[in-house]
């Protein structure tokens, strides 16, 4: 990933392929998710009717699933699309939004992950802990103060990520001040980011969809690392915005305009050594 050729390969391949991304997400962030997919050079389709999602997932290059603002129809669609992706070897990510405060979402996520093996499992630390039946302190769909990743609990946070990855054979992405990306072989810690991301709706949902775009190119852990770097560096480049409205506009522009040189220049990550 520190090699420019690898970065160029994944980004150029995405632009070359213009992949179709099937995103089943919540209406709160659906517009931002579609726009970020377009900004990266991919094509979004936001279908969620249970009678059409199997057909659409089959024709897509990757699938993004978000459990936010769940409905009966979306539950059926998530189950159908996950099964379709699994049976057709289509890469997908599941975002565990709100599983810490909703048994409905928690049970749905366990069903999807146990039966259909997503390539990437994403969540904040409260959500990841809840999924693993560990004591957690969520604050709505946000991470609770006691669960936040910091330098003092980083080692234990990595162990939690590794534990989930080993149990599911999925790449695990835990978001926070320090983002943890882990599989059975390696773990990356990303230090980039901006607190202003918490001032807009759907930044986590946008990351989920960025990951799905790069999963269409490569299923390896570096595709998740690249996705995380892009969104966090774009946020840093938007730091001087006067408020959340202008930040969102600059943020989307910077995702569209970010160069490989920007990524190499501003990347702040490390490979975790146990």
UniProtKB/TrEMBL annotation:
Pathway: Cofactor biosynthesis; thiamine diphosphate biosynthesis; 4-methyl-5-(2-phosphoethyl)-thiazole from 5-(2-hydroxyethyl)-4-methylthiazole: step 1/1. Keywords: ATP-binding, Kinase, Magnesium, Metal-binding, Nucleotide-binding, Thiamine biosynthesis, Transferase. InterPro entries: Hyethyz_kinase, Ribokinase-like. Gene3D superfamilies: 3.40.1190.20. SUPFAM superfamilies: Ribokinase-like. Substrate binds at residues 46, 202. It is an enzyme of class 2 (transferase). Its EC number is 2.7.1.50. GO terms for molecular function: hydroxyethylthiazole kinase activity. Its cofactor is Mg(2+). ATP binds at residues 122, 175. It holds the Pfam family HK. It catalyses: 5-(2-hydroxyethyl)-4-methylthiazole + ATP = 4-methyl-5-(2-phosphooxyethyl)-thiazole + ADP + H(+). The keyword Transmembrane does not apply. NCBIfam families: PRK09355.1. HAMAP family: Thz_kinase. Catalyzes the phosphorylation of the hydroxyl group of 4-methyl-5-beta-hydroxyethylthiazole (THZ). Belongs to the Thz kinase family. This is Hydroxyethylthiazole kinase. It comes from Peptoniphilus stercorisuis. The lineage of its organism: Bacteria, Bacillati, Bacillota, Tissierellia, Tissierellales.
């Amino acid at each position: 990933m520190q090699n420019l050729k690898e970065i160029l390969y994944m980004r150029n391949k995405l632009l070359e392929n213009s992949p179709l991304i099937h995103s089943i997400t919540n209406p709160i962030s659906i517009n931002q998710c579609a726009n970020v997919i377009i900004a990266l050079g991919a094509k979004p389709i936001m279908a969620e009717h249970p009678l059409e999602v199997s057909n659409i997932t089959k024709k897509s290059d990757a699938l993004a699933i978000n459990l936010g603002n769940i409905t009966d129809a979306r539950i059926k669609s998530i189950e159908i699309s996950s099964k379709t992706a699994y049976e057709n070897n289509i890469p997908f990510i599941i975002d565990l939004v709100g599983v810490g405060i909703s048994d409905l979402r928690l049970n749905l996520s366990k069903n999807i992950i146990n039966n259909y093996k997503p390539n990437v499992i994403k969540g904040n630390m409260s959500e990841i802990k809840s999924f693993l039946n560990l004591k957690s302190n969520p604050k709505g769909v946000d991470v609770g103060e006691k669960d936040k990743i910091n330098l003092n609990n980083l080692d234990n946070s990595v162990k939690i990520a590794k534990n989930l990855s080993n149990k599911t054979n999925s790449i695990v992405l835990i978001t926070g001040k320090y983002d943890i990306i882990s599989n059975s072989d390696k773990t990356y810690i990303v230090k980039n980011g901006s607190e202003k991301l918490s001032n807009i709706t759907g930044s986590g949902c946008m990351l989920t969809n960025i990951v799905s775009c790069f999963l269409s190119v490569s299923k390896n852990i570096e595709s998740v690392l690249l996705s995380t770097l892009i969104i966090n560096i774009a946020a840093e480049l938007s730091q001087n915005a006067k408020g959340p409205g202008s930040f969102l506009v600059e943020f989307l522009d910077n995702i569209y305009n970010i160069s490989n040189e920007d990524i190499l220049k501003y990347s702040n990550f490390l490979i975790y050594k146990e």
